[in-house]
Amino acid sequence: MIGLISATAAGAAARDRLAAAWPDRTRVYEGPVGEAVRAAFAECGQLVCFLATGAVVRLLAPLLGDKTADPGVVCVDEGGRFAVSLVGGHGGGANELAREVGELLGAEPVVTTATDAVGLPGLDTLGLSYEGAVAAVSRALLDGAPVGLEAEVAWPLPPLPLVRGGSEGAYTVRLTDRAVEPGEREVLLRPPSLVVGVGASKGAPVAEVLGLIEETLDRAGLSRKSVAELATVDAKAEEPAIVAAAERLGVPLVTYSAEELAGVEVPNPSDAPLAAVGTPSVAEASALVRGGELLVPKRKSVRADGQPAMATCAVVRRPGRGRLAVVGLGPGARDLLTPRATAELRRASVLVGLDQYVDQIRDLLRPGTRVLESGLGAEEERARTAVAEAREGHAVALIGSGDAGVYAMASPALAEASDDIDVVGVPGVTAALAAGAILGAPLGHDHVSISLSDLHTPWEVIERRVRAAAEADIVVTFYNPRSRGRDWQLPKALAILAGHREPATPVGVVRNASRPDETSRVTTLGALDPATVDMMTVVTVGNTATREIAGRMVTPRGYRWQAEQEEAR
């Protein structure tokens, strides 16, 4: 919950805007400001104070305790110009809250946390459990000192300027699920890599189940902080001891059907669970059902009274799944790059792309991003590289112009990718859409895009598609229309369309849409000179209903509408 405090009418107006926008996230505190701040500090995870920063500092000073537990506090001046992250930038989420508040109120977020100021993700903001010398190692990163990365577990991390491997005495970030203590110059990051499979007899005591899990992890030298979930069979989804063990460990309980578990090959099957719940294995099978390395085979609890064990468990390490984001950069203008694309570029630890596209967005990358760029004609190689990097557990962004799924990198990448990595598609503004917006509204009805490049598609196939579009009276946008080595395809395609459309049919020609040297013109099918077109050009040919109106191409939404308009004239 976010506590909202104000002192004046101007502050209350901004406060109420926030409360109206986030009714389920906020609570307004009325009354004397000091009392309101103290109450909100005790009851809320975050505060937004519409007060001077000096006043808030004085009110908060006696309340502050531990930065890992204190609420995040944001101050907004009464003019609504700035949203200042004052306290709890990372631990309390104030930095992100300042950005959200700024976006909603039109205020400039002010974030002074050192790592955020220089574009480095904080070691305490990675979504992983952490311990050790966070401040010292962060300072070393900020100072440009070499900081080693010891990755004992493959896990996707955001970009950090870390050196693979470490040396004695150096600053180190260690990614591990082992139960070890951090060194003086070391930060331990705990990935949620461990799955504990659990079986229990009906009525098993909580202490027996929880004790077995904790003893098993301790004996194996594994960190409880890296346990991602408990897993069991559906029949035990409401077994009180298993449910309580998951709650006490602070992890979700995941269940699978007996049929699913019976199909998992395990080293220690048993007749007892087969008779009881329909699968020869519960602990091992439920831990292994989604793959991974069996670190601890099935263990049984030991009861002090000598009675048969009522609980079993097994531990599996699941490697972190790599992540491949296929990102469309749009037609070139920075303001046509979507916020989602920008977020993915900043999230990626590895960027793969054509060198000229990399140059467009290099300034958006975080320090430490590894860039793998290549020249024209290496599309399949880039796709294979991106998938291979994701399979190694990295967060990868593969970039393409326009929309990455339209004549771009998504197709070859997804043809290489299997279900062992996560794939995210980020749409972009295509060349056809960018050109269409410049020309007017040429795509107002059914339309099709056709590439005239026969490097990957036989001309016979391309020609058949052009004829189909011509016969169907569909607006056509030609990509890759003409190059030095391919100068006859565009005239041929235009001739096919001319067999079904009048010479006066409007044609839009846009070169370098949205870029500084953009040019555009509207001509006709009969007047277009193919020699004026190159590979940087998009050519849009209207259908029989398309008209030029006030210098713009307009294709009506429907033929009936067009007829009504003409009758009205």
Automatic annotation (TrEMBL):
It comes from the Bacteria. Pathway: Cofactor biosynthesis; adenosylcobalamin biosynthesis. GO terms for molecular function: precorrin-3B C17-methyltransferase activity. Residues 323-528 form the Tetrapyrrole methylase domain. The keyword Acetylation does not apply. Its EC number is 2.1.1.131. Residues 36-116 form the Cobalamin synthesis G N-terminal domain. Residues 194-315 form the CobE/GbiG C-terminal domain. One of its GO terms (biological process) is cobalamin biosynthetic process. Keywords: Cobalamin biosynthesis, Methyltransferase, S-adenosyl-L-methionine, Transferase. This is Precorrin-3B C(17)-methyltransferase. It comes from Streptomyces actinomycinicus. The gene is cobJ.
